[in-house]
Protein: Gamma-glutamyl phosphate reductase
Amino acid sequence: MIEELGAKVKAASKEVAKLSATDKNSFLCQLAESLIQNTERIIQENDRDVAKAKEHGISEIMVDRLRLTAQRVADMAVGLRQIADLPDPIGQVLQGFTNLDGLKILQKRVALGTVGMIFESRPNVTIDAFSLCFKTGNSVLLRGGSDALFSNMVLVEIIKENLRERGITDSAVELLSDTSHEEAEKMMQADQFLDVLIPRGSARLINKVKEKSKVPVIETGVGNCTVFVDESADLEMASQIVINAKTQRPSVCNAAESLVVHAKVAAEFLPKLCEDIKKIHAVEFRADEAALKILQSQENCPAIAATTEDFGTEYLDYIMSVKTVNSLDEAIEHINRYSSRHSESIVTCDYFNAQKFQDEIDAAAVYVNASTRFTDGFVFGLGAEIGISTQKLHARGPMGLEALTSTKYLIEGTGQTR
Structure:
């Protein structure tokens, strides 16, 4: 199956790369309208995935990652229109000059070619991945998780219907419907068809792809995100930021998993947080010795002793590690040690502490006085994202259009030899 689908998307990449910006933008707007028109059809197939997940005892938090609603379909359509409105990076001249030999040299953006995407649970990734790849002249081979198979299939069917209607090859997108591990591993080895592979999901998935892939990999997604409450923090603001970062949607990679608190404000802040957060949703705190003593003295504030592993865990649940520190330097050292390099935030009223935190924290997104939940391609004006890169080569942070391009040099001479 991989050989057949890989050959199709490889051939399609040549055709997609020739499409004009006008044609691509027009198609994306048409697809946005088609999603709205097919909302009932999409939700009907998604309901099959949700029912199957519930039968298998999947937690409600993880079911929420899977679920599509009319609003979420509408949000996908908005994302498509945003991408259509963005400047097309293909053909953009990055630099141009004449060298000492009289050669005219241009560096231009070009498509990567054929993109492979292995992801879990969230069917909206199907639309995000396709739209960003299509806008940048790439074809894409998708392999979603078995838990979202019906949702992914109907979304790809709708994309293909619209491609055929516009006379564009429908192999601009293909879905690997065989979700077995064996086929996934074949996809990781398919360097004759794929130019890049992007895994999006759990740490286990990403590590497996990194270990087994012959295709170049862009690492994305694992989010052990932290909020640090500085000694100068506005504690009311800090409480609201932690509550939002932890509870607003705990199943996503930009939700906060760790809380670091300066010891000078811990005795005041932690009881306040306990009181405030239980009004929204109960959270289990896994705390160091100093924080545990404070938390266990509070009524209805679930808290247990943290292990070393807790500080580096992406829970994707109503669980949060808590660490007390005696200085900003200690906070930075702790976060850099356990962070997944995704998103970190400081709550502070001290300008110099804010600047030091942003300068020294090693992460793709570093916030001052804001929730980590904002790390998102849509929020950052990218229209959508194909993933949030936590590595440093090629792309970092939410990956939009430019992250799906490469460059080539175009050289014009008048008979020069060397």
Notes: The two ends are 48 Å apart (CA to CA). The first strand starts at residue 93 and ends at 98.
